[in-house]
Amino acid sequence: MDDPQLSLPCCSERGLLSSSKATQVSGVKVHLEMPALWQQFDQLGTEMIVTKAGRRMFPTFQVQISGMDPAAEYVLLMDFVPVDDKRYRYAFHSSSWLAAGRADVVAPSRMHFHQDSPACGAQWMKQTVSFDTLKLTNNLLDDNGHMILNSMHRYQPRFHVVYVDPSPNSQSNACRNFCSFFFLETRFIAVTAYQNHRITQLKIASNPFAKGFRTSDPQDQ
Questions:
Q1: Which residue(s) pair with 78 in the sheet?
Q2: pTM of the full predicted structure?
Q3: How, if at all, do strands 96-102 and 86-91 pair?
Q4: Which of 5, 108, 118, 147 is a Cys-bridge partner for 73, taking CB atoms 3.0 to 4.6 Å apart?
Q5: 90-115 as b/e, with b when 16 or more CB fall inside 10 Å?
Q6: Cα 115 from Cα 162, distance rounded (Å)
Q7: Is the bond preceding 218 in cis, omega lying within 30 degrees of 0?
Q8: Which of 20, 29, 13 is nearest to 161 (CA)?
Q9: Which residues have CB under 8 Å from 48's CB, separation 6+?
Q10: Would you give per-residue pLDDT tens digits along the chain (221 residues)?
Q11: Which residues, 6 or more positions from 62, have their beta carbon under 8 angstroms from its beta carbon?
């Protein structure tokens, strides 16, 4: 399952859509914001902190959307799927991540709805869509709606656009009324403390709120 195409059958990398979709979603294109920064992290092996209370992602997942029906209503949401069935550990002597056995039991699957959903296509397309309120947690009993992930596992964020179909038979067309996207450079390993010091340095250098998380998390320094 190392190939995301196997684990993400409904998704299309870089905004290329699958066929047989409703006209309201068939032309939708999604552009990942800050791709160069994401690629910098990806080259080092992106790590995202998970905490019991929930931690925001950095880089923040942000996209520009085009090709929507300006008058139609859409719901935007995200989820996170395991990239493979492995658990990882960080080898400090080689500064690399190594598979360390089979994955833990998959954490409860959740969807994060963008707080402005639903909204018309014109509103979504006029500005950058930011998932800056999304938080990651390793608390399996979380009741705050945060995304539950297993530490030391690799995840692929997915972004979904759902057309709010007003027709009476909308349920029967549900599979036609959405489209999904993923960007390989946004995959990451969930951690409770950064393992690669170069990731720590890049986060501090590129995060405008770095001072806040340096003082609250000594391991981030």
A1: 112, 159
A2: 0.85
A3: antiparallel
A4: 118
A5: beeeeeebeeeeebeeebeebebbbe
A6: 14
A7: no
A8: 29
A9: 55, 57, 58, 136, 155, 188, 189, 190, 191
A10: 333 333 333 444 444 444 589 999 999 999 999 999 999 999 999 999 999 999 999 999 999 999 999 999 999 999 999 999 999 999 999 889 999 999 998 888 899 999 999 999 999 999 999 999 999 999 999 999 999 999 999 999 999 999 999 988 888 888 899 999 999 999 999 999 999 999 999 999 998 776 555 544 444 33
A11: 32, 33, 34, 128, 129, 130, 131, 132
CA 2 to chain centroid: 17
Beta-bridge partner residues of 70? none
Q: How far apart are CA 29 and CA 125, in angstroms?
A: 10
Token duo for residue 96: 């690399």
Token reading at 34: 């800050």
Structural fold of domain 4-207? Immunoglobulin-like (2.60.40)
Residue 19 main-chain phi, psi, to 5 deg: -85, 180
Residue type, 27: G
Q: Which of 221, 104, 207, 210 is nearest to 154 (CA)?
A: 104
Q: What are phi and psi of 81, to 5 degrees?
A: -120, 145
**Preceding amide of 70 cis, omega within 30:** no
